[in-house]
């Protein structure tokens, strides 16, 4: 018997970005920069650090799970009834960095969250690229 309640979906967004991993890492881990492309936050790149991101519509409770500077960052991304994980992976390329964002944990009964993430993350990554273009 298959337990469909445990089957989950993921949203993956990937970009080739013409900047080194170190520059992208700063934008992913410095609170004032995160606020420019994502939301207000109290992030610290420290494993187990609890933080929140917030916007006009509400907020998300998070906890840092993995920190490998310039390589991998992951954190839980929890709302009242969604428990998911966001993982950023930075891979150097000959022209910059391959950036991969994956949010896992969408249950079949969470279509609105899944659709929201499918639309939202590409917008956030576009905003991230704009922040990177302005950074020195």
From TrEMBL:
CDD domains on file: SRPBCC_CalC_Aha1-like (cd07814)
Ranges of residues in domain Activator of Hsp90 ATPase homologue 1/2-like C-terminal: 19-132
Xref: Gene3D superfamilies: 3.30.530.20
Family stated for the protein in its record: Belongs to the AHA1 family.
Name of this chain's protein: SRPBCC domain-containing protein
